[in-house]
């Protein structure tokens, strides 16, 4: 960072069962790391329990944790390095993340007739962290990925869903990029800044997908919906 190079760290924190000493060391490490990076993306392993049930294996849980960490990186880098109709640069990203305090990251992917709306709702839901008060957000950075079949109408639908969940004063920046590996699906990632950690409630232990008052079906079971999935972590800046 001192050399003017964009530096992003993506890390996870210990499970509660690992004991207070591991937690204390992790917090100290995060504080030190935050001084050397532009953005620090932290995913609490403990919150994987919100996406697990009695049959979830340890290997499956850690694979999911890896997927969350990956999305934290791709949500930032894809807007810069992947080709698309609407590309952003670091100045755009810096507008949302600079001096933002704490922020959160979510993503969702969906296929089918209502894929745009479902992916947007999945991205704005919080299976890992509980209820996210997006009405308090001061900024959002939105990444929309899809194949060549992604339409302008679908992009407009996604941004409509997201804008309806935040205050009019929130600064919303979005970009789109092509990803042939998910042809037939649409993936939405959001970085929500200006969130205070005491403004939302922790998860109750089940996956919850919120579709507000729309006709999109909701899921309250112990397993993620097959056609649309969401990931959430939080940033500590």
From TrEMBL:
Can you supply a Gene Ontology BP term from the record? cell division
Q: Which UniProt keywords apply?
A: GTP-binding, Nucleotide-binding
**GO CC annotation:** cell division site; cytoplasm
Domain Tubulin/FtsZ 2-layer sandwich per the UniProt entry, residue ranges = 86-204
Q: Which Pfam families match?
A: FtsZ_C, Tubulin
By its UniProt entry, which Gene3D superfamilies does this protein fall under?
Tubulin/FtsZ, C-terminal domain, Tubulin/FtsZ, GTPase domain
Q: Which SMART domains match?
A: Tubulin_C (SM00865)
One GO MF term:
GTP binding
- What family, per the record? Belongs to the FtsZ family.
- What is the designated name of this protein? Tubulin/FtsZ 2-layer sandwich domain-containing protein
């Amino acid at each position: 960072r001192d050399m003017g190079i964009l530096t992003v760290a993506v890390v996870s924190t210990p499970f509660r069962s690992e004991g207070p000493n591991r937690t204390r060391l992790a917090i100290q490490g995060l504080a030190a790391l935050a001084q050397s990076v532009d953005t620090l993306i932290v995913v609490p392993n403990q919150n994987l329990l919100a996406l697990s049930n009695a049959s979830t294996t340890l290997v499956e849980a850690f694979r999911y944790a890896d997927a969350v960490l990956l999305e934290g990186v791709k949500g930032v880098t894809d807007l810069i390095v992947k080709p698309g109709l609407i590309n952003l640069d670091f100045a755009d990203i810096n507008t949302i993340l600079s001096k933002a305090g704490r922020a959160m990251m979510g993503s969702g992917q969906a296929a089918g007739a209502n894929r745009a709306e479902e992916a947007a709702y999945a991205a704005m839901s919080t299976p890992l962290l509980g209820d996210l008060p997006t009405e308090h957000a001061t900024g959002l950075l939105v990444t929309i990925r899809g194949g060549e079949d992604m339409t302008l109408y679908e992009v407009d639908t996604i941004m409509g869903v997201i804008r309806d969940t935040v205050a009019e004063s929130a600064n919303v920046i979005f970009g789109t990029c092509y990803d042939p590996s998910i042809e037939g699906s649409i993936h939405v990632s959001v970085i929500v800044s200006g969130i205070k950690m005491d403004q939302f409630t922790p998860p109750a232990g089940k996956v919850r997908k919120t579709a507000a008052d729309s006709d999109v079906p909701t899921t309250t079971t112990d397993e993620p919906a097959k056609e649309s999935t969401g990931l959430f972590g939080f940033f500590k800046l």
